[in-house]
Specification:
By secondary structure, the protein is an alpha/beta fold. It is 28% helix and 24% strand. Residues 118-131 and 141-147 have low confidence and may be disordered. The structure holds S-adenosylmethionine (SAM). S-adenosylmethionine (SAM) is lined by residues 12-15, 18-19, 40-42, 45, 64-66, 81-83, 86-87.
């Protein structure tokens, strides 16, 4: 889901930036260059991410998923990895993400659940799916996870 051509990619619950770094490696050299925005409510995690990552594509901000649409511009892709289980009101947060994701954008998330991803992982009324380019790369085995395209 981190394809060339994405303009704004949000790493929600970015922690100290390990996933942000992977995203940056993935988009390295792509044109136009995207903004990669890490968001996390923990000031210490944000400080670590800022210290660890010096890419000029990356920016970090303190904030929580509950307020996402007030924090970041509309995004093409939101990843929320290893963190959604920490959110109290998942329905509210998925609605918030849905507001923030562009019409053709994607949400990718996982959780600690031991169950395999199913359609129960949908964001609001969104359907599970990915863009053609991502599906090709998934077939090559370079991407995994659940993606949801918010529908309006
Ligand atoms: C296990 S870490 C995952 C960090 C990173 N995504 C990764 O996979 O390496 C979970 C992160 O979720 C953040 N978090 C907790 N509640 C959150 C919320 N309501 N909105 C966004 N992030 C949250 C925590 O501060 C923590 O940094």
């Amino acid at each position: 889901m981190i394809c060339p051509g994405r303009q704004v990619i949000v790493d929600l619950g970015c922690g100290p930036g390990a996933v942000t770094q992977l995203i940056l490696e993935h988009v390295s050299g792509s044109e136009p260059q995207p903004r990669v925005i890490g968001v996390d409510p923990s000031p210490s995690a944000i400080a670590k991410a800022r210290a660890a990552i010096s890419s000029r594509l990356a920016e970090f901000m303190e904030g929580s998923a509950e307020l996402l649409s007030r924090l970041v511009p509309p995004a093409d892709a939101v990843v929320f990895l290893n963190a959604i289980h920490l959110v109290q009101d998942k329905q509210q947060v998925l609605g918030e993400i849905r507001q923030n994701v562009e019409a053709r954008g994607l949400l990718g998330f996982n959780s600690r659940s031991s169950r395999a991803p199913t359609s129960r992982g949908r964001a609001g009324s969104g359907g599970v799916g990915s863009c053609a380019r991502c599906r090709r790369s998934e077939r090559r085995g370079s991407t995994s996870g659940t993606t949801a395209t918010p529908r309006r």
